[in-house]
Amino acid sequence: MRTLVGVTGSVLLGAAVGALATAAVLWVVWGRRIHAGAGDRPLDGVGMAAPELPPGATDVLDVLASTTIVVDKDDIVVTASPSAEAYGLVRRNRIGHEDIRALVRQVRADGQIREDTLRIGRGVYDGPGDAPLVMAARVAPLGPGHVLVLVQDRTHEQRLEEVRRDFVANISHELKTPVGGLSLLSEAVLDAKDDPKAVERFASRMQVEARRLSRLVTDIVDLTRLQVADSLHEPLRVDLGAVVREAVDSTAVLAEGKQILVQTVIEPDLVTFGDEDLLVTAVRNLVTNAISHSDPGTRVAVRAQRRDDNVEIVVADHGPGIAPEVQDRIFERFFRVDPARSRATGGTGLGLSIVKHVSAIHGGSISVWSQEGRGSTFSLRLPDSDRADRETAGDGPGQLPAAEAGPADTDELDEPSVQATDGTDRTPDTPHDARKGVVTP
What we know:
Elements: H1 2-36, H2 57-63, E1 67-71, E2 77-80, H3 82-86, E3 90-91, E4 94-95, H4 98-110, E5 114-120, E6 133-141, E7 147-153, H5 155-191, H6 196-226, E8 236-239, H7 240-250, H8 252-257, E9 261-266, E10 271-274, H9 276-292, E11 299-307, E12 310-316, H10 339-344, H11 351-361, E13 365-371, E14 375-383, H12 387-393, H13 410-413, E15 418-419, E16 425-426, E17 432-433, E18 438-439
Parallel strand pairs: 9-11
Antiparallel strand pairs: 1-2, 1-7, 3-4, 5-6, 6-7, 8-10, 11-12, 12-14, 13-14, 15-16, 17-18
Helix pairs in contact: 5-6, 6-11, 7-9, 9-11
């Protein structure tokens, strides 16, 4: 990523330097015209001469990707791109940022090009959630007494770099925990070789740490694969009913261990285009997350249905819920609402991030409703590949009872019969008891 940003920055810098040279030539010509006809210029509202740009100068400034500002010898803004005012860099024909004004003064004093990275508030910068913009400023002399300011918004690149650093740091930390545990446990086994019970206990713990390490490596590989541009290069028709059943079946052991009933209601003929294995992984992560955060003896509801122009998979639990202030962060890599509980349940902190990436490459979305003390409901929406065929045949989309974002409604899942659009009853699927791995009658 650093290489890509570096190359991009070099290209942009080269383009800016070339544009500066072109603009300088035009500015010299313009400066001569100004001096030749200074007595004929009208005055602006503050009593300063209002110079006119020569033909072509505006075009040069307009094609620059950077935000551009030109000031005269009295620091009056002669011309500026619209984004300069949008960023608050120009106010009332003056440069509105003290750091840029300081750079302009330095350039005017010695004629040397100056560069700096600035943090500029987004309008009125008061709230802690409104992080300042990261701007790269380049200031250069331009013609007689004039200075050109080029500013580029590097906030996105800065954020990507921060994410990269955080990801590497988190991977290092997460890998150290199971690897360190395995090292200590192996030493304990050697020290307790004459105590069979102790060896058995330590070996059992080693298996837990090994499984945790395996899950972490698998999730890292999956997430890396999802970030490749062609990660979905051969989409196929996928039966989402089969996806949900496979995902729920794969969580049966986990659900049985906590005595949690996983119930499913699946509308028939739900199809999307995509990668079946990735979709199974996404749904399994949602169900695993619901089971892990639910109290023993409760239920998890899984519903697959058509909704508007999409197909939707909803997973609801009766867990502790998620505080509003962190709901926007739960899809970040390695973010945990409760780190202690997540590690106790074997979570890697990557499951929901994988769900987000899977939904994105399939043209879908993932959302969450949650309230502390009432549980959470995750909704995965994907394009309905059969919508056009149904409309051509004159059939409207089938409808299940609306599953608006809200608390889990597992009582409704006790009735497998669902009212279809033609007024008849049909049973898309029966409640599935994941504790026993069988379909209940």
